[in-house]
Task: inverse folding
């Protein structure tokens, strides 16, 4: 490996401490709302909310209490004030911690980066006033946490992120009849996702199928869906020379990067998967971004998120 001591596992206390990095992303300030039924995120729906949006000509059905009498007198036609309703939006984090994420040639293991990204997004969503929930899975277990706007809910999510990682020096042995994978998690997510949710899928997307496209497309029709791919440098290109070992279920597998035939076969496999994944995301209408195992997650998210650290 290029890095002799990459981080292979991240603990719950370390995930909790990431709230400091999340705060450094500088979330936009939000004015407090007194109504118990109001949330903290502006929706696209116009209504009687807290923030003024625009004035337009009166239309049948408009609330006459919202008529702007000054504009009406000036333009000699009834005009209505419109407001942006402030509503909380559920944020659902679908986090892959399967066997293929117990790997890195540099930086930290993919399962560590996956958990870190999920934790940062969870803290950001909570401080934005959103409901936070998630699905955390590996090839053996799937934990479902329904969205809620409580710090306790985020801590439960982080606890599952810590417990679902593989620990130890030996790689995980895939379950014989693995029933929990990305497709299973996506199918389960449809059951707990409310229309209009913000969904983040954090995975290396190494095990996509034809069904993945269908499941992603169904979810993105009614929600805002983003795929955050965790990728190791070796999954982009091999070094030009040298002998390397990759851990496998039956022990280390050695390969010679200077072998032209091996290089060609490896590159062809990479290109085939890249095209397949690109087609899947494009067909399903899902926005995607990639985070490398060598990148600091907080720094990378600062570039991926909107101005002021907004995630919606």
Result:
């Amino acid at each position: 490996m290029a890095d002799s001591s990459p981080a292979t596992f991240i603990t719950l206390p370390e995930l909790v401490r990431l709230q400091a990095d999340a705060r450094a992303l500088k979330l936009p300030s939000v004015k407090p709302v007194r109504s118990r039924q109001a949330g903290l995120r502006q929706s696209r729906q116009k209504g009687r909310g807290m923030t003024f949006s625009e004035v337009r000509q009166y239309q049948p059905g408009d609330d006459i209490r919202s008529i702007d009498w000054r504009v009406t007198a000036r333009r000699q036609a009834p005009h209505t004030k419109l407001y942006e309703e402030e509503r909380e939006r559920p944020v659902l984090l679908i986090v892959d911690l399967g066997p293929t994420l117990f790997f890195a040639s540099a930086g930290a293991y993919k399962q560590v980066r996956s958990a870190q990204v999920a934790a940062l997004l969870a803290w950001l969503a909570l401080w934005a006033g959103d409901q936070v929930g998630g699905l955390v899975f590996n090839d053996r277990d799937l934990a479902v946490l329904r969205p809620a706007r409580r710090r306790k809910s985020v801590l439960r999510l982080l606890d599952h992120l810590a417990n679902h990682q593989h620990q130890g020096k030996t790689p995980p042995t895939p379950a014989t009849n693995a029933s929990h994978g990305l497709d299973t998690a996506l199918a389960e997510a449809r059951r707990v996702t409310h229309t209009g949710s913000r969904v983040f899928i954090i995975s290396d997307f190494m095990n996509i199928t034809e069904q993945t496209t269908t499941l992603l497309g169904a979810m993105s029709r009614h929600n805002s869906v983003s795929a955050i791919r965790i990728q190791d440098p070796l999954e982009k290109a091999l070094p030009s020379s040298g002998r390397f070992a990759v851990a496998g279920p039956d022990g280390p597998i050695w390969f010679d990067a200077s072998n032209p035939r091996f290089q060609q076969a490896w590159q062809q496999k990479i290109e085939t998967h890249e095209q397949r994944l690109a087609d899947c995301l494009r067909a399903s209408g899902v926005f995607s971004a990639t985070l490398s195992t060598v990148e600091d997650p907080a720094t990378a998210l600062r570039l991926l998120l909107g101005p002021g650290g907004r995630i919606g």
